[in-house]
Amino acid sequence: MGVLIIEDDATMREVLAFQVGEVAPDVEVAVDGQAGLDAFDPARHAVVITDLKMPKVDGMTVLRKVLERAPEALVVVTTAFGDVAVAVEAMKAGAFDFIAKPFDREHLRSVIRKALSVTALRTRVTELEATLDWGERSLVYSSARMGQAVTTIDRVAGSDATILLTGESGTGKELLARRIHARSPRRSGPFVAVNCGAIPRELLESELFGHARGAFTGAMKEHKGRFEVANRGTLFLDEIGEMPVDLQPKLLRVLESGTVDVLGRERPQPVDVRIVAATNRDLAAEGAAGRFRSDLYFRLAVIEVRIPPLRERPEDVPVLVEHFLSKWGGGRRIHVAPDAMTMLRTAPWTGNVRELENAVRRFCLLADGDEIGGDLVAEALRLTSGVPVAGAGIVLPAGGVSLRDLERQVILKALQMNGFNQSRTAKFLRVPRHILLYRMKKYGIEAGEGEP
Predict the structure, then answer these.
(1) Does the bond joining 200 to the residue before it have cis omega, within 30 degrees of 0?
(2) Is the C or the N end of the chain the one with fewer CB within 10 Å?
(3) Average pLDDT for residues 358-363, to the nearest whole number?
(4) How many CB atoms lie within 10 A of CB 15?
(5) Residue 5's pLDDT is what?
C-alpha cells in the first residue's frame, strides 16, 4: 500500500516525496486538494499526507472526503507552526497525526513509519480473521428466537443461495453474515463488506463494479470493484435498501449473469461471488412504493432471515452483558447488581446489541469498585433513552443534562482507575495520548484530582 502526498507548494512537495520515499515503497503526489481527491484510490493509498491550507479545496475538506470514501485510511496533515490549533481540529475530525512546518526529517519519517505499521497490522488482522470462525466466536445468545434464526442460517450456509438478513440496526447482521461465510465452502476466500448507505452515490458504482483507467475524468488508475475483490468469496452488501434506484439494475444483472460491467471495459468481467445482503427496511414495501426494484428483492431474498431485536429476546441480555463485561472490564471481575440487571433486561434498547455494548462499556468506566449498581444503570439509561427507567424512580431534569460534565467524569474516572498513567488511560479509552492530553486540558483535569 502506498502514500499519496497532496501539497500545492512545488518545493515542499518535492521534499516530502523524497523523504517519504525513503521509508515508503510507493509514493504519489498531487498538486492541490482537488487533484488529490481525484487521484485518491483506497485500494492503493493507505496513507494520505495533505497540507491544510490550499486553494480551491482545503485540507479539512480533503480529510473529510477521504474518510467518507475510506474510513480506514490514515490521513496525516501538515501545517505551519502557528496553525497548530487548526491541526488539532483536524485530529478531532479523524486525522491520524499532524506535522508542523518546518518539520524535522526524522519526525516525518517516524510518523510515516508508524502509519505504515498500523496499515500492515490491520492487513495482518484481516488475514487472520479470514482463518477464524468469527460467527462462532463472537455470536452470543441464549434465546430460542435468536436460536431459530441461527439454525436457519447454518442450514443454508453451505449452499450458494443468496441470503437477505433483515432486522433493526445493531442486531448483529454482519456477525451472522460472517458466520455464513465461515460455514460455507468459500471460507478460504475473501469476505468483503460494503455499507451501501455510507458511500456517496457518485462513488458507489465505482466501488462496487470498478472502472478502467481513463474511464472518466480523473480515472488515472484502474480500480477493482468489490465484486472482483470478493471473487471466489462472499460479498456482504449491508444497508442494501439504501442503494440508489438507478444502480439497482446493474446489481440485478450481476446476480443474473455472473458478470460485472466494469466502466471503461469493452467486455463484462466474470465473477464468482456469493451475495449476502442486509437491511433494516421492509424491501417488499419499498418495492410497492417504487423505491426498490421488486425483481431485485426477489433475487436477493432467495433465503430471507429476520433477526429479532433485543427487546424481543430479553433473556439474551444477561449473557451479552457478561460477554461485554469481559471485553471492556480491563481485567476486573465486575458484576451487575440484581436490580441493575432487571433494568437492563427491561430497557427498550432501540439500538439493540450495539447500544447495550456501549452502555456496558460506560458502566465499566464509571462504576465505583467492582459492582454496577442500579443507580448507575438508571442514570445512564435515562440519559441515553430520554425516558424514565422502570423501577428507577428517576425523572429527566427539566433543565437538561451536561454532556461536557459527563465526558469529564468518564475521563477522570479512567485516569483514577489507571493511577493517572496517561499512556495506560489513553489505551483504555482507545484514543491517542495527545487527544487525552487535549481533553484533560480542555476540562481542567489535574494529575491526582479526586484521589484521597
Answers:
(1) no
(2) C
(3) 89
(4) 17
(5) 95
In tens, the pLDDT along 63-94 reads 989 988 887 789 999 987 666 677 778 887 88
Query: Where does the pLDDT of residue 394 fall: very low under 50, low under 70, confident under 90, or very high at 90 and above?
Result: very low
What dihedral angle (degrees, nearest 10) is formed by the CA atoms of 374, 377, 382, 384?
Answer: -170
Report the C-alpha dihedral over residues 227, 229, 230, 233, rounded to 10 degrees.
140
Quick one: average pLDDT of 182-204? 88
Domain ranges, ordered by start, for the chain = 2-129, 135-308, 312-443
d(CA 356, CA 344): 8
Q: Going by CATH, does the domain composed of 2-129 fall within 3.40.50.2300? A: yes
- Please state the pTM of the whole predicted model: 0.58
* 427 CB burial (10 A radius; 0-12, 13-18, 19+): middle
As a whole number of angstroms, the distance between CA 107 and CA 102 comes to 11
Q: Do domains 2-129 and 312-443 have the same CATH topology?
A: no
Stretch 259-282: mean pLDDT: 90
Q: Which CATH architecture has domain 312-443?
A: Orthogonal Bundle (1.10)
pLDDT at res. 72 = 79
Could you write out the three-class secondary structure of 362-410? HHHHHCCCCEECHHHHHHHHHHHHCCCCCCCCCCCCCCCCCHHHHHHHH
**Could you count the other beta carbons within 10 Å of the beta carbon of residue 292?**
23
- 393 versus 415: the higher-pLDDT residue is 415
CB 164 within 8 A of CB 306: no
By the 10 Å C-beta count (0-12 exposed, 13-18 middle, 19+ buried), 130 is classed as middle
Q: Between the CA of residue 130 and those of 124, 133, 159, 338, 450, what are the distances in Å?
A: 10, 8, 19, 39, 46
- Confidence grade of residue 397 (pLDDT, cut at 50, 70, 90): very low
Superfamily of domain 135-308: P-loop containing nucleotide triphosphate hydrolases (3.40.50.300)
